[in-house]
Amino acid sequence: MDYAPVSSGITQGQPPRLLEQVRRQIRVLHYSRRTEQAYVGWIRRFILANGKRHSREMGADEVAAFLTALAMDGNVAAATQNQALSALLFLYRHVLGVTLPWMDNVVRAKRPRRLPVVLSKEEVSQLLGAMPDGTPAMMARLLYGTGMRLMECLRLRIKDVDFARAEICVRSGKGNKDRRVPLPMSLKAALLRQRCWAVSLHASDLAGGRGQVHLPHALARKYPNADTAPGWQYLFPSRMHSRDPRTGRRGRHHLSEEVLQRAVKRARLQVGILKPATCHTLRHSFATHLLDAGCDIRTLQELLGHKDVTTTQLYTHVLGRGAGGACSPLDLLPVPPSQAEGMAADAQRPPIGLKRATP
Known about the structure:
The N and C termini lie far apart (56 Å). It is built from 14 helices and five strands. It is 45% helix and 4% strand. The longest helix is centred in the middle third of the chain and has 20 residues, at 188-207. The strands form two sheets. Strands 1-2-3 form a three-stranded antiparallel β-sheet. Strands 4-5 form a two-stranded antiparallel ribbon. The chain is globular. Helix 1 runs antiparallel to helix 2 and helix 2 packs across helix 4 (78-95). A hairpin with a 6-residue loop joins strand 4 and strand 5. The protein is mostly helical.
């Protein structure tokens, strides 16, 4: 898919428009492109909701009314409401340079503590087994085998996989941090074939006068030939060329996240897993199963890239240290003989709505 480059928004003799100023400041601070898209979207919605008034003319009342409308009329989650607030605070603090006393008193919505969806080892085996051989199946196994996030897996470069040391270097993960995760030995041969295919695909691009890949920050200027080097190419490249939305230059990006998301969903429906499992569920399952195997919490924190160990401790809820590890007092009560016979009969009775299979 082709993307049109982002226009400068500047005409002769006119200052840049507000949203273009937001984009510039976000890029100066090296925020991710997804953050840029989200912030620009919320600021646009805020301006339209107030009759296209300039942001300098608005203040605490308009921001509070906008966030209230999101919660009451839009029924958005607390995380969505906080994201909108962060976008507006970014607008006033970093773009307009306005320091208003009400900004420090804005109360963020309280995010509820949710337990992650975790698959059992049998469910993971069924899910992965239902995926046909190919790149999506390999990537799904890589998510479960390393605990990487979806975009961390998609953005892997060829140079990031160290087969000699059996490890993968995750670059610029959440919080713009690097970390190392183990390379599953059962995927070594498949990843070697994937690397060979990606290198040959890059060679054909070079022969066709292309072969340039996006490099982070100013590396393209510091290393002029790095964007055509095989090591910098994506390990899971897209089968189509696309246009960089910031530079307008055509190249080969990584595979779209929707490819893997749809493959995981099809496999989940095929095997009949009722849990709302997604690609991120494989990361949760990786963490839970490692703890179950005896991995210490600090090592797991490093593998997952968590800033605080309390985030990692959330996975102990299925390891016999939470509700599943406590015995209900109802099961400890002595059962009279008359009730024991009825309970045994109930155990043999099929669930409601199901018929007993005939021999």
